[in-house]
Amino acid sequence: MIRVAAVDLGASSGRVMTGEVEPGRLALAEAHRFPNGPVRLAGRGKSTLYWDILAIYTEVLAGIRAAQAKAPLDAVGIDSWAVDYGLLDPSGTLLGNPVHYRDTRTEGVPEQLRGLLPDRELYAVTGLQQLPFNTLYQLMSERDGARVREAATLLMIPDLLAYWLTGQIGAERTNASTTQLYDVRAGDWAIGIAAKAGLRPGLFPPLRSAGDLIGPLLPAVAEEAGMPTLPLVAVGSHDTASAVVGVPAEPGATFAYISSGTWSLVGVELDAPVLSDAAMAANFTNEAGVDGTIRFLRNVMGLWVLSETLRTWRARGDRVGLGRLLAEAAAVRPLRAVVDVDAPEFLPPGDMPARIVAACRASGQEPPETRAEVVRCILDSLALAYRRTVREAAGLSGRTIDVVHIVGGGARNELLCQLTADACGIPVVAGPVEATALGNVLVQARTLGEDLPDLAAMRALVGRTQSVRRYTPSAQVQSWEGVSPL
Q1: Which residue among 149, 172, 286, 462 has the highest number of C-beta atoms inside a 10 angstrom radius?
Q2: 239 is a catalytic site residue
């Protein structure tokens, strides 16, 4: 039996899971969980949103220690969210806390880049969707600042943690491909793009692939964690890349996936990127997946809108539980009001219920009045956004989609899963919730010698060992046709 620790870092929480793999068996257990969120600091007339990266590192060590205490580990792997980074000086010292992608520092930067590099040229190389927080724009926003001037190396969040754990510098491809500084066809850094954006090519470290051995834990780290010098294995370090490995797709099925959490990543798995004008106009992204695959997808705002709504209500003293709200929302008339969850006003933290009401009024709809109506508006709008993206992914890639797999936290939301089946008009398979950690574990297990030769074998093991639920379109499916997010 192979036993590993999967470090899985999300934008709102992090956890360390232990995974056990042997022929016909795949088991997962939580060793440690901790909150993760932004820290806002003021200074000289403006404030900046940061990640508390040292706290994250401390919690990661605590999680590895907790996992090792239960039974000896064979290896560790790390995945996290995308686009954010740390900068190291020539001595290997971190130059300040990484900035959070929801910070406003990139406002106006995409327009600046268009003056240097047309969108078509940028997309032809990187295949990446235009998002205001892409790494390229973040770097440009501080290009003339002290951090970038003094920096010797850029490391994405999982790679930065890997460096602190092993002393090895490198960048795993699935996360590197989210930077808009990666050549999706060549599988290497897009040095020409970096140069046109005024960024030094030397910032970008050597690339590695999921399944590569990064190195053993540094002796001092192993001693602090109270364990042997375990190997750190490169996994699909972008959490969505690991999540797609954990999709329990049946052999031969043409599936779409929704990795549903704070963000929803909606797309299909391909063998080659789609770099057409139509794909660029639809703002689809081509990101590297495990085993040379391409994750052809688009970001949808996701459960962030719902979680920020609940946070707003709780800050006002309303402690109504999500389960009760979902039950009440299920009884609300469907499609009473819908919004475009991808609209920019829903990106930053704040009073999300007020923004939903304002968006409904601006589009001439009767706004939701009760909490249940607000929740139903959010979920109906998410299902419509999922439908739109699944159908566009199918059309742009030339695929016919047989089934939609929802993995991640959204797989627990029975109402959202049923609404997605109704909106898309095809079956939805929900689960596993822990697809990201499972994908992380499976890649490690293969590297350590488990007989899992390809993605199909990994997915078959997930399908045999993990619980999923199937949703079929209900009688309400016809009411969804012709309705689109506003």
Answers
A1: 172
A2: yes
